[in-house]
């Protein structure tokens, strides 16, 4: 019983740390964009995917696989796993460093902006930190100690965000170029990685022993193969951003847009990224708290509980993802002004916001598959998503510009969800009931309609940033309340669904009162 409580406590601790990291990762981009403007935001977002990939390798991929291999083994076997993993991941990280550092010129040329070369080369240094961070986190998690992993994640993100904002502000204030400010932001990310490594080193000093070098070929293959599979599925959004880095700016230039205008509009398009991250945070974080329960039910061979928890995770992600997408579209104009000073791009950003719905479902299904021990289905779903994104970008950007790029993201994530649904049904797992789907869709549509009428009834093109902020926040709160009322009043959510939401017990009592009145 104590082992079970420890397992759940550790899982929830990592979830809380991941939530902190996601929220901070989305929020800091708003003041950063306000400091450097749309063109400076474009510069940073062009190279951000390289940091995202390095961070994903150090957080979501290799540590997960390493903790599986090290969990429940004796000290000698654990040392073999740790040393083998460090050697394997070091080789992969050094190869990534060489590829980025010496291929930076080619990559910058492929992005149609040679001035990005120094930023890409600086980003290459991130991959040198990955082996130590990933192995230390995996070893601690395998031993059942989640504190070092959680604390290193939060320290890394805090130092990184502080560094990005400080260096960008200082360099802009000093009259340096936007590309130099972007380089300062990348350096801030390097400081974050260094801080994470320092935290893990401090935790690892206790009880450290000198042991001869150990290597196991079979373990190396497991780390490389399964680690890559887990990493790929965790990097879905980053890989979609990478596709946009190569295709959107160059596509706008091909459409005869000037360089200055194309950079600014790509920066405006990138405003959608923090909105997407914030939008999926609630849906994914709440639904992912259920995944450890799925893993536990699977270990206990309790198939009914496993299926029940899987359904619960899907219902929560489907409903909250749909509500976030619909609500974001309804308040997009004042929200855009509140966060980024202007309403530019609100139309295609509203289309881009539909990605919240599809990614919420995809991320939850990926986690459920992995909780059941299947790493390959999520990886295949991500590969399909990225391939569709590249193809849809190539087709739609020349035809529709940034509307096409936004639609390409939505279509690619829809393709990924459809693939996962097919695999889900092949496993003979029940999907969401049709009644739940159409009732939830109706609730989200009604909510969005009311909020849209409210927002556009009180805001005008002349509304300033302060009033836009008041309207955006009021509209979001109104939308959240309306959606919850619809979901409870129509009994779309069961008591189990409501229980895992904030103030869930109060909503259950409210639902009971409404039922009695009938």
* SSE order: HHHHHHHHHHHHHHHHHHHHHHH
Low-confidence stretches: none
Distance between the termini: 43 Å
Helical proportion, percent range: over 70%
Number of helices: 23
Assembly state of the chains shown: single chain
- Any idea what the shape is? globular
Percent of sequence in beta strands: under 5%
The count of β-strands is 0
> How is the biggest beta sheet arranged?
none
Radius of gyration, whole Å: 23 Å
- The average pLDDT is 86
- What class would the helix/strand composition place it in? mainly alpha
Q: Which helices and strands occur, and which strands form pairs?
A:
Elements: H1 2-27, H2 29-70, H3 75-102, H4 104-110, H5 117-124, H6 130-142, H7 147-173, H8 178-204, H9 217-234, H10 236-254, H11 259-269, H12 272-288, H13 291-299, H14 303-330, H15 332-340, H16 346-352, H17 355-371, H18 376-400, H19 402-426, H20 434-458, H21 465-489, H22 495-499, H23 504-517
Helix pairs in contact: 1-7, 1-12, 2-3, 2-5, 2-6, 2-7, 2-8, 2-9, 2-10, 2-11, 3-5, 3-6, 3-9, 4-5, 5-8, 6-8, 7-8, 9-18, 10-11, 10-18, 12-14, 12-17, 13-14, 14-16, 14-17, 14-20, 14-21, 15-21, 16-19, 17-19, 18-19, 20-21
């Amino acid at each position: 019983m104590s082992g079970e409580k420890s397992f759940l406590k550790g899982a929830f601790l990592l979830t809380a740390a991941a939530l902190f990291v996601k929220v901070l990762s989305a929020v800091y981009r708003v003041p950063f964009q306000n400091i450097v403007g749309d063109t400076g935001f474009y510069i940073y977002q062009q190279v951000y995917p390289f940091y995202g990939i390095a961070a994903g390798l150090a957080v979501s991929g290799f540590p997960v696989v390493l903790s599986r291999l090290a969990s429940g083994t004796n000290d000698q076997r654990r040392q073999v796993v740790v040393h083998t993993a460090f050697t394997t991941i070091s080789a992969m990280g050094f190869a990534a460093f060489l590829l980025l550092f010496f291929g930076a010129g080619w990559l910058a040329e492929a992005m149609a902006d040679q001035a990005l070369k120094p930023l890409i080369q600086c980003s290459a240094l991130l991959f040198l930190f990955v082996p130590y961070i990933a192995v230390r986190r995996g070893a601690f998690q395998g031993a059942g100690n989640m504190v070092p992993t959680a604390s290193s994640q939060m320290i890394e993100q805090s130092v990184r965000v502080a560094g990005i904002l400080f260096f960008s502000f200082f360099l802009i204030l000093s009259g340096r170029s936007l590309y130099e400010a972007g380089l300062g932001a990348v350096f801030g990310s390097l400081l974050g990685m260094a801080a994470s490594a320092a935290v893990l080193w401090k935790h690892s000093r206790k009880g450290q022993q000198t042991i001869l070098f150990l290597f196991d070929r079979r373990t190396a293959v497991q780390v490389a193969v399964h680690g890559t599979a887990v990493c790929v599925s965790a990097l879905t959004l980053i890989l979609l951003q990478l596709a946009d880095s190569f295709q959107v700016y160059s596509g706008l230039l091909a459409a005869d847009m000037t360089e200055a205008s194309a950079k600014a509009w790509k920066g405006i398009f990138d405003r959608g990224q923090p909105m997407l991250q914030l939008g999926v945070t609630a849906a994914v974080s709440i639904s992912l708290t259920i995944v450890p329960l799925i893993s536990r039910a699977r270990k206990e061979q309790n198939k009914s509980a496993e299926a029940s928890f899987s359904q619960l995770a899907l219902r929560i992600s489907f409903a909250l993802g749909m509500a976030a997408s619909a609500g974001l579209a309804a308040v997009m104009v004042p929200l855009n002004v509140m966060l980024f000073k202007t309403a530019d791009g609100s139309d295609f950003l509203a289309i881009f916001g539909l990605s919240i719905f599809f990614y919420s479902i995809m991320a939850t299904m990926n986690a459920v598959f992995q909780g059941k021990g299947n790493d390959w289905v999520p990886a295949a779903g991500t590969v399909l998503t990225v391939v569709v994104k590249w193809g849809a970008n190539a087709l739609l950007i020349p035809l529709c510009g940034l509307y096409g790029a936004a639609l390409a993201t939505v279509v690619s994530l829809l393709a990924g969800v459809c693939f996962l649904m097919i695999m889900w049904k092949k496993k003979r797992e029940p999907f969401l009931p049709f009644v739940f789907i159409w009732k939830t869709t109706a609730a989200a549509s009604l909510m969005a309609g009311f909020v849209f009428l409210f927002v556009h009834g009180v805001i005008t093109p002349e509304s300033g940033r302060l009033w836009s902020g008041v309207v955006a926040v009021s509209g979001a709160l109104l939308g959240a309340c309306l959606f919850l009322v619809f979901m409870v009043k129509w009994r779309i959510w069961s008591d189990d669904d409501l229980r895992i939401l904030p103030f869930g017990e109060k909503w259950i009592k409210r639902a009971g009162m409404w039922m009695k009145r009938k």
